[in-house]
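User: Teach me something about this protein's shape.
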Amino acid sequence: MRNSWRWPGPLKHNRLMIEAQQGGDNGARDEPTVYEQPLNERLRTFLRLDFLYSQALYHNDKASSWGSRAAMASLLDMLAIALRGDVRSDVLKELERQCTRLTEFQNHPGIDATRLRALVSNLQRLRTDLGNAGASWLQPLRDSEFLAAIKHRSAIPGGTCEFDLPDYYFWLNQPDTARMQTFVRWLGMLRPLCDAIAELLWLTRQNGRSSEQLASGGVFSISFDRDTPYQLLRITLPAGAEVYPEISGSHYRCSLRFLAWQNTDDRPRQATGDVKFTLTCCP
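Assistant: First, the predicted structure itself:
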């Protein structure tokens, strides 16, 4: 049976990747650093897929055979996640939950009705696009012998060398434009899912509640109200901070331990002084 999937148009990076590219290396060092910790398995999956999607686009845009190799690795990782469990169903449920939640704000005083309608309309469009993809939306990628061979050999260190996969090597030596277009077609099949996830993550971050905190001796603990479950924890440290957080816990309680970076050869040390940071809890 012929596949009815159609190329939806140019792909895009998510917001975080765009900001990182525009800022450049020097800009990134002048900006606060944000560390994120998902508090449930669903959001953990969303963050991983969003990361891999942006990484695949970034490497494919490099227009080189090495960039295509790196992009292919990201694509195969995305397939491994998307084909395990029902991620599509989880995203559709979350889109529906967010639509319902935003609709309830329509009659609240002080609400920007135009912006609210735009947000709801966008969520509904993403839900329709993902729903129209159908239950067999990834079947062409699942059935591809070419991709299956690369996935199989990728489990072996160095297993995708030219002598292992001559057809892969042949494809990597095709003109950049043709190779990139083929990859974008593959990645485009995941676009409805990844566009929806990017929007859901943006909404989750926007709904966060921030507060300035102090970790005495580099240690901080927080307990959450069981009636207000949070999905994401964000720790923001000022530019130039010489520490980073090690976060553990669940959606009921989290512990933060700030570590002082040494170098790549020595283990980090527990921060001994007080550490100021911004804590954002996202429902």
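Now, about its shape. The beta strands are 33-38, 209-215, 219-223, 232-237, 243-249, 253-260, 269-270, 275-282. The chain has two domains: 41-204, 208-282. If you'd like, I can walk through any region in more detail.
User: That's plenty for now, thanks!
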